[in-house]
Specification:
The protein has one helix and eight strands, in the order H-E-E-E-E-E-E-E-E. By secondary structure, it is mainly beta. An eight-stranded mixed beta sheet has the order 4-3-7-8-1-2-6-5. Strand 3 and strand 4 form a beta hairpin. The protein starts with a helix and ends with a strand.
Length: 128
């Protein structure tokens, strides 16, 4: 336990020295009309909900699927908050592929708040 505590302590000190905060981010992909809604939870390092975020605070990437292994950033058309710190992200349909084929997908989600608060996670989802 001592080693993990030391690593944790160093990360916290390093973030504070750089005047940065770590956002804790979790996410899941939920199918909606042959695409995904991405449901995201965002809290500060001390557990307070990150409220008031806009679509520009989020980035969503398609990282992998059955026949796809390159990064594709998706445009977020809408971010709905509720309850505090939980967001539902609606992705803009792509002209080149308006319907995603059935399969398992891996998404990457990054969140920024202000100039220095950052976090990221991966999420999975299935299109039936």
């Amino acid at each position: 336990m001592g080693f993990l505590y030391e690593v944790y302590f160093r990360v916290v000190i390093n973030l504070k020295q750089k005047n940065m905060s770590l956002l804790l981010v979790t996410a899941a992909g939920s199918p909606l009309f042959d695409d995904f809604l991405v449901v995201v939870s965002v809290t500060s390092f001390d557990g307070a909900p990150a409220v008031g975020l806009k679509p520009s605070n989020f980035k969503v990437y398609m990282l992998a699927s059955l026949n796809h292994a390159s990064v594709d950033q998706r445009t977020i058309s809408k971010a709905t908050e509720g309850p505090g710190g939980f967001y539902t992200l609606q992705l803009k349909k792509r002209v080149s592929q308006p319907k995603l084929p059935a399969g398992h997908y891996v998404l990457g989600v990054t969140v920024t708040s202000g100039k220095t608060d950052k976090g990221q996670t991966t999420a999975t989802g299935n299109i039936p």
